[in-house]
Amino acid sequence: MSKKTFMVFFAAWSLALAGYSQVFAQSTMSADVVVVGAGAAGLAAAVTAAEGGAKVIILEKMPAVGGTTNYAEGIFAVESRLQREKNLNYTKDWAFKYMMEYTHWRANARLARAFIDKSPETIDWLEKHGLKFKEPAANYPGGYMTWHIIDGRGKALAQTLYAQAQEKGATVLMRTAGKELIKDGKGRIAALIAEDAAGKKIRINTKTAVIATGGFINNKKMLDKYTAFGPDIVPVGSSGKTGEGIRMAWAAGADAFGTDVLQLYRPGIPGEGPESHLNAPARQPYLWVNQLGDRFCDESIIFSWPYAGNALANQPGRVMYVIFDENTKKYMIEKGIDVGVGVMVPVATKLTKLDGELQRGIDRGFVFVAPSVKELAAKIKVDAARLQATIDEYNSMADSRQDRLFAKDPKYMQPVRKANFYAMKAVPFALGTLGGIKINHKAEVLDKNQEAIPGLYAAGNDAGGLYGDSYDVVLAGSTLGFAVNTGRIAGENALKYIGK
Ligand SMILES: Cc1cc2nc3c(=O)[nH]c(=O)nc-3n(C[C@H](O)[C@H](O)[C@H](O)COP(=O)(O)OP(=O)(O)OC[C@H]3O[C@@H](n4cnc5c(N)ncnc54)[C@H](O)[C@@H]3O)c2cc1C
């Protein structure tokens, strides 16, 4: 044997050996239903399937269950017992029509209908499993009281369903990520490959899989490729949402849907804690300018987060500045803010800590203070004459109590006249992504021919179909509602598929 032939033979033999040991490093398990992701959607699917007698394995890649669900406060429903007790007579038909009109019929109508129809019974189901609710509320001034506030918030929901899943016999593999779906010769789900924290592969033989990994808000490449908001949108309350479940389903032939929809939150200063008084001025409906020094919206759309995020996404560099003067600062400190910033800094909070926190904002490059508009413009790198013209026009409209440009309610027209002058830099925030895998009203994953992939289901933030181009905050609690309801629907249909 020549030296060259030997080298080729040796390389091939080494590769074969590596593959061989790989196969043997892999352990094998089996289940009726494998659920990937232990948030609201995955846990609802797991409890449903386990209650129906299926052998369930839940994979959760983090060291704790709950994902983004832990941060939620309330869940959508209409025609619930709790609403009836408050004489709130929202109907399923009304909610369906509202949703389809809001999305300009870009939502998947049958999926929206299935979710809405199931929603009141899901509140009963959650109560039956031990969850307690406070009164339904709205999440928006003038919004609808469809938000069923959970006693103990989303964390209680996740923990309750987690306990139920275990009680019903489900196996939970923590720090174990779903990686790949395997289909048989007929295109049916046959197995799923998972990987534990040590990198060990586990093959789980199964006829069904429910993908519920919570979307891709922490994946900059996917954000850049699939959304209009760029890679640097600030994720709130999410970690590890890298779109693994979505990419796994796509690799198995799933069609894509709604990948560009984000759950936009109010623009603000990143990295400020929930008790910060610095973020509040950056979220008030006073004068906003873009990097050119121009106004670009009715600033009171801050109440409707998706609108504010959409307007900001169209601005150069997706950056804006909230401009105010010494009088407005005094107003926020002595009278209180017009827009609350979470439960720790609610509406009307007097920003007594603001002066003490300004230096932190300056050091972090998000707060700019100057004795003149000209010097402020230099600090934020905006053309001084253009900024001055914007301020002059705004002041004249504030004096006449009429916003001739964007028709903002005059109560938010604070003139900008008295030194010092302040600029708070704000960037877009999002609570998550709201699409990726195309599903039908049975939560079955569809392929590119719009046929269901046998045995494959998706739920929650991984699934597209509930929104058009924008998330809706008026029909409060819809994303958590979609997660729990599509999770239950997926669990029920997986049971039917395996004949349970
Ligand atoms: C601050 C905040 C407040 C919110 N408040 C509300 C509210 O009041 N009402 C409302 O309707 N919505 C609210 N939302 C949105 C709501 O929480 C989500 O839409 C919902 O929880 C999504 O549920 P999910 O099960 O799809 O995803 P998640 O709850 O995020 O669960 C996904 C799980 O999958 C795991 N995972 C990821 N990849 C893998 C993998 N490869 N293998 C295994 N596991 C994996 C994750 O670690 C995670 O545990 C809020 C969001 C935030 C951030």
- Total number of domains: 2
Strand content: 15-25%
The percent of residues in helical segments reads 25-40%
What do the pLDDT scores average to?
94
- Output the structural class: alpha/beta
Shape: elongated
Question: Reading side by side through the largest sheet, how are the strands ordered?
Answer: 7-3-2-11-21-20
Main CATH class of the largest domain: Alpha Beta
The tally of helices reads 14
Poorly predicted regions = 14-24
CATH superfamily of the largest domain: FAD/NAD(P)-binding domain
Bound molecules: flavin-adenine dinucleotide
| Gyration radius from CA atoms, angstroms | 26 Å
Report the major sheet.
6 strands, mixed
In whole angstroms, the N-to-C terminal distance is: 61 Å
- Number of beta strands: 22
CATH architecture of the largest domain: 3-Layer(bba) Sandwich
The CATH topology of the largest domain: FAD/NAD(P)-binding domain
